[in-house]
Design brief:
- The chain is of the alpha+beta class.
- It has 14 helices and twelve strands.
- Strands 6, 7, 8, 9, 10, 11 and 12 form a seven-stranded mixed sheet that branches. The protein has a five-stranded antiparallel sheet with strand order 2-1-5-4-3.
- Helix 9 (about 240-270) packs parallel to helix 14 (about 390-400), helix 10 packs parallel to helix 11 (about 315-335) and helix 11 (about 315-335) packs antiparallel against helix 14 (about 390-400).
- It is elongated.
Length: about 425
């Protein structure tokens, strides 16, 4: 039925009832009584309508579905419809608030920075990543112009030129960022930042790895090829010289073999296809072997001591032998003749510890953080002298990661170094040896 007809039917019925009642009173009591009664009824109807208008106006000032007044007559339908509209609006508002909270929570967990700005670049909201990348504060800087907060000439030029189809590479706050502005809606823009600092560092490590590995392989290959050319061009070469050349070629060939084996070991340690298979590790037997190897490598040029005052542990004997041996052999190689090397195994409140202390050349602080990178060398000119292969400390790092251990390095230039391996408390099985 027509809604307008539904509205006017009750109105017409009420007016008809008033007229009929007034006519009856007129007939029985005269025109004065009839007209007075009709007028009073009309006034009462008007007062009721005005009261409902007042209640509606008061509710519109403070709309709350729980405080919506009840109606009478046509007002019943009006207030019922307003109640439904208000409940729908509250439900939609709650859903919108929930979705906004989810959106902000999701944006807060993103590793990329997200900044929402209006069309004149005033900050409306930013996530924690953007705060770290750009030095912003969502609470402090809201409502401020972003170009006043990020005072970088390249960023300001990017904003002024408005060429947002291409991202901007920005160096800011010791970070390298990829920045791009994405316009959306009519009056808002999104500033997205992606931190590529770590990716750049990894790429630099990759380039260094390729360059250093190539250098390490090229040197022995050059020696071997050079001696082979001499042997080919001089078939009547003196026997003593020929044997000297063969000895050097064997040494360089062994060096290449050691390098390849270390690289394969490192690849295996990094692979998930070779999980750690724990076993009982006899620390006394293992470290005694490593001491004998160190003494053989030293050839009597150093004083080497071994102290064992701690428990056996669970782990991979072969992997721990490789890690400990690398640390000890490095101490031998980088300690001048007459120096001292102390190898210790002890138990502490936090767990077993292995340490190698030497009186060698020491390491400057800026190099310590990079020592466990593949082929990283503090002094590349010492590469041939020390006969190291390069991946040694990288192997140590990955072995310790697989055993839940960490490596601490203490060193001073010309004063020596101490490499400390700290194992977790649950690594040992409470069996101790004292030497």
């Amino acid at each position: 039925m027509n809604p307008q007809l539904l509205f006017w039917i009750p109105v017409t019925l009420r007016l008809s009832f008033i007229l009929i009642a007034a006519g009856v009173l007129w007939y029985f009591f005269g025109p004065v009584v009839g007209l007075s009664a009709g007028l009073l009824c009309l006034i009462a109807l008007i007062v009721i309508q005005l009261n409902y208008l007042y209640l509606l106006n008061a509710w519109l000032d403070h709309p709350d579905s729980e405080k919506l007044p009840d109606g009478w007559g046509a007002w019943t339908d009006i207030f019922s419809r307003l109640y439904r509209f208000r409940r729908d609006d509250e439900r939609n508002s709650a859903e919108l608030t929930e979705w906004l909270a989810r959106f902000r929570q999701a944006m807060s967990l993103l590793p990329d920075g997200v900044v929402i700005m209006d069309d004149v670049l005033f900050l409306e909201w930013c996530n924690p990543a953007a705060e770290q990348h750009l030095g912003l504060s969502n609470l402090r800087d809201k409502g401020m112009r972003v170009t006043n907060l990020i005072r970088n000439p390249d960023f300001i030029d990017y904003i002024i030129l408005g060429r947002y189809e291409q991202p901007l590479t920005l160096s800011l706050r010791d970070r390298k960022l990829i920045v791009q502005i994405i316009p959306f809606e009519n009056r808002r823009q999104i500033l997205v930042t992606h931190d590529v600092t770590e990716a750049e560092r990894i790429e630099m490590m990759r380039r260094d790895f390729i360059a250093n590995a190539s250098h390490e392989l090229r040197t022995p290959l050059t020696v071997i090829n050079g001696f082979l050319e001499i042997a080919q061009s001089q078939p009547d070469l003196d026997q003593a010289v020929r044997m000297s050349h063969l000895k050097l070629m064997i040494e360089q060939g062994q060096r290449m073999q050691n390098l390849v084996e270390d690289m394969l070991t490192l690849t295996r340690l990094e692979s998930i296809d070779y999980p750690l298979r724990p076993e009982h590790v006899s620390i006394h037997h293992l470290l005694d072997q490593i001491r004998q190897e160190a003494e053989a490598l030293s050839g009597g040029r150093h004083a080497i001591s071994l102290t064992i005052d701690g428990p056996d542990i669970e782990g991979s004997t072969d992997e721990l032998r490789s890690a400990f041996s690398n640390l000890v052999s490095n101490a031998v190689r980088y300690t001048p003749e007459g120096g001292r090397i102390d190898i210790k195994w002890k138990n502490t409140e936090t767990g077993p510890q292995f340490s190698v202390k030497d009186s060698g050349i020491g390491i400057r602080p800026e190099h310590i953080v990079r020592l466990t990178e593949r082929f990283y060398r503090v002094d590349k000119s010492r590469s041939r002298e020390t006969q190291g292969t390069g991946p040694g400390l990288a192997i140590v790092k990955h072995v310790l990661l697989r055993h839940g251990a960490v490596l601490a390095i203490e060193s001073q230039p010309e004063m020596g170094s101490t490499f400390i391996v700290k194992f977790p408390q649950d690594s040992n099985n409470k069996t101790s040896f004292v030497n």
